[in-house]
Specification:
Largest sheet: 10 strands, mixed
Distance between the termini: 44 Å
Structural class: alpha/beta
Radius of gyration: 16 Å
Strand content: 15-25%
Oligomer: single chain
Order of helices and strands: EHEEHEHHEEHEHEEE
Number of strands: 10
Number of helices: 6
Helix content: 25-40%
Length: 206
């Protein structure tokens, strides 16, 4: 059964954030709000959490998981970025973008795209998500909370608790967040490719 945390949207309660991080460190799986929509999150080395995300979303092994990072310094430890890409990403973060980039050796092998050896990274512009990442002290393995057969992600914390109570360990509710997932930009080739148009304006990468 999932624990439900009602977190203030502007000043997240440190005690609640600490309790959620304890759940993450104990190999838990959480649902949490971002600046684009709700997401599923687990600690980076949590293989069971990754398998549970795949099960909930019916994902195959070609799906790009995302490393949700607190800041640019953290992001830079996990992906290889040249100067031009650095400038483009820096100008767009924090924000509603996911960037697909070649991974460094810091990224667990099972998180990589099997052929391309790439991983998705993002820095959310959301107070509760940032508080969570600051307390955790490392990126979180993440995926949009979009259920199989649904057109749009779930948007209400209580509804997520109601529907996924049996498969989650915690739900953070911090008021409304958007219904659009992130815009995904693939930087793994020579030119950026807009893979999915979502909440972030894709124009700067086209």
């Amino acid at each position: 059964m999932a624990k439900y945390f009602d977190v203030h949207p502007d000043n997240p309660q440190p005690r609640s954030i600490g309790q959620v991080v304890d759940i993450l460190r104990d190999n838990g799986l959480i649902a949490y709000p971002t600046d684009s929509c709700f997401a599923l999150g687990a600690q980076l080395g949590n293989k069971d959490g990754m398998d549970r995300i795949r099960s909930i979303r019916h994902l195959d092994d070609r799906h790009h998981f995302t490393l949700v990072c607190q800041n640019f310094a953290q992001l830079g430890q996990f992906v290889i970025i040249n100067n031009a890409v650095f400038r483009a990403i820096k100008a767009s973060t924090p924000g509603s973008y996911t960037f697909i980039l070649p991974a460094t050796k810091e990224v667990p092998r099972r998180l990589l795209h099997p052929k391309k050896k790439t991983v998705g990274v993002r820095i959310p512009d959301h107070v509760a998500a940032q508080a969570l990442l600051a307390e955790l002290g490392e990126p979180m393995l993440s995926s949009t909370l979009l259920l199989p057969g649904e057109e749009e992600p779930m948007t209400q914390g209580w509804q997520i608790k109601d529907e996924l109570d049996h498969v989650l360990d915690a739900v953070i509710d911090s008021g409304d967040c958007g219904v659009e997932p992130t815009t995904v930009i693939d930087f793994s080739a020579d030119e950026p490719e807009v893979v999915r148009v979502g909440a972030g304006d894709p124009a700067r990468f086209e």
